[in-house]
Amino acid sequence: MADEETNAAETPEGTEESTEKSGGGLKMIIIIAVIMIVEGAGLYLIITKLGGPKSVEAGELIGLEDTGDEAPVEVELLKERFQNMQTGRVWEWRVEIFLRVRQKNLAEITRLQERDAATLKEGVALIFRRAHDRHLREPDLATITRQVTSYLNDQFGVDPDGIPLIDRVIIPECKGFPADS
Questions:
Q1: Cβ(94)–Cβ(78) under 8 Å?
Q2: What is the largest CA-CA distance in the chain?
Q3: Exposed, middle or buried: residue 99 (CB in 10 Å: 0-12, 13-18, 19+)?
Q4: pLDDT digits (tens, 9 = 90+) for 73-86
Q5: With CB atoms 3.0 to 4.6 Å apart as the test, which of 4, 60, 129, 143 could cross-link to 135 if both were Cys?
């Protein structure tokens, strides 16, 4: 019974403590909300000061130096299959060759291609027939590209400025298959 009396005497005081705690919880929530609002406003101000859009002014275009007569153009020279027997077996090589020329030389290149189509095809075929297997299997086809470039520069010649008509020979496809199996 003595315990019940002490509990009864503490009950009114216990209710006062519980109201103080709930009021303290509300104060804590308000403080946290104010801190979050201040933090959000601070971040907004910092982002708008530092990350605002920059003004843009139009200027001259960069990279237009290769336009007009000096612009590079790619022209297909041939797409053909050539045989090679240097390994003792007959291999068939599927080849595609493009020429990179300047725009001002394009008309001359196409004229020579049409006029000497069979001669050009024969010359390239001879290069592939005589080529060693290791040259045909190079990852960058450097040897074959050099040989074809040299042959074509001899055939096409130079422009009035003394520069070869062909800037570069491009061989995007050179795949070999055994033809005797």
A1: no
A2: 126
A3: buried
A4: 999 999 999 999 98
A5: 143
Angstrom distance (rounded) from CA 146 to CA 124: 12
Residues near 15 by beta carbon (within 8 Å), at least 6 away in sequence: none
Q: What is the mean pLDDT of residues 7-22?
A: 52
- Per residue in 118-133, pLDDT (tens digit) is 999 999 999 999 999 9
pLDDT reading at 7 higher than 80: no
Neighbours of 120 (CB within 10 A): 19
Within 75-116, residue ranges assigned H as helices are 106-115
User: Tell me: the pLDDT tens digits for 148-172?
Assistant: 999 999 999 998 888 999 999 999 9
What sign for the dihedral angle of Cα 36, 40, 41, 42? positive
Res. 11: pLDDT tops 80: no
Cα–Cα distance for residue pair 42/11, rounded to 1 Å:
47
Nearest of 129, 155, 131 to residue 143 by alpha carbon: 131
Residue 165 · residue 159 · CB < 8 Å: yes
Q: Which helix (H) or strand (E) holds 49?
A: helix 2-50
- Could you tell me which CATH number the domain at 66-178 has? 3.30.479.30
Residue 99: pLDDT band with limits 50, 70, 90: very high
